[in-house]
Amino acid sequence: xxxxxxxxxxxxxxxxxxxxxxxxxxxxxxxxxxxxxxxxxxxxxxxxxxxxxxxxxxxxxxxxxxxxxxxxxxxxxxxxxxxxxxxxxxxxxxxxxxxxxxxxxxxxxxxxxxxxxxxxxxxxxxxxxxxxxxxxxxxxxxxxxxxxxxxxxxxxxxxxxxxxxxxxxxxxxxxxxxxxxxxxxxxxxxxxxxxxxxxxxxxxxxxxxxxxxxxxxxxxxxxxxxxxxxxxxxxxxxxxxxxxxxxxxxxxxxxxxxxxxxxxxxxxxxxxxxxxxxxxxxxxxxxxxxxxxxxxxxxxxxxxxxxxxxxxxxxxxxxxxxxxxxxxxxxxxxxxxxxxxxxxxxxxxxxxxxxxxxxxxxxxxxxxxxxxxxxxxxxxxxxxxxxxxxxxxxxxxxxx
Length: 400
Ligand SMILES: Nc1ncnc2c1ncn2[C@@H]1O[C@H](COP(=O)(O)OP(=O)(O)O)[C@@H](O)[C@H]1O
Ligand SMILES: [Mg+2]
What we know:
single chain, 2 domains, 8 strands, binds magnesium ion
């Protein structure tokens, strides 16, 4: 009998596989974005939501529209009904009424790394949604994609292979010998008012090797390069969110050194929590080692966020309870529960905050939004607590 021996998979086959998977991504993007069009933000707010977001009554908004401090509200040309306000218009109201929640110049911008060396725990999901939550509140936000997998870059409507040049647009040139003196070259506005970003693509992975090679002769350059970069753009923002790669490499290490606050997403299941425990151990060991080499770093806050928690799984509940018992001070009170809404939104390269219209009126959506808002609010308070100029207001709000 002629038994065919399965052929071995060579480089050519792997290349073909890679090309085909790129095609899948391309098709997904084509489905999501009509050809040639750019992603845009289509959500709008009625006057009641506007009043709440701006912190002024509906009447004061109407008055300002009547006396010309604010533009006339837009109306649908056929029905004559008000079409609602965009986030840009809400921000305009905040400027007119002086209700921007900005930090004072004397407060330090929060550089928050959403860090865990494990992949798939929800880092990028938290970064994108937290950025948008804060932008909805009117803060000046910057998202730095430090992961060559670039999922956050894609969520912000950029095709990492097409819209992002590794030699010009990512952190990569800055990480190289003789690179630009600041990170301004890589900062770009996104279609979300109030969110700027530094995108990533696969080319950023080369920085891992180059950093590792350079570590031998130029340790302090490698360790603090990202920190210097972030400091060069910090003044323009209230919050800078760092989305690191899922590995303990040189880039992750420089993210830990660049941040002044940490959030650690950790799903309460055995394997992921085991790796989070491992992460905490490795992180402290590494930070201690690095401290001996180039000065210690401390953080305004370090918080563990339970993510992807499923209330129907007794193991999740048990592990979450254990986490609360072991880290009573360190856990965030809010939980980012497992939600089909997040998965579905991500599959369409969207966030839950970008879903409007009838799709936003389902129970699943509302529930998911409530989880995300709770995480956002808690993070916002942690952030504001680091700003002395906000303390009087926090006291008035009964928070401090
Ligand atoms: N709370 C959640 N509920 C459901 N799916 C989630 C949740 N958080 C993340 N996901 C999904 O899990 C996958 C990995 O999440 P991601 O944020 O990319 O992880 P990481 O950045 O840590 O690798 C994504 O497909 C995302 O949509
Ligand atoms: Mg990620």
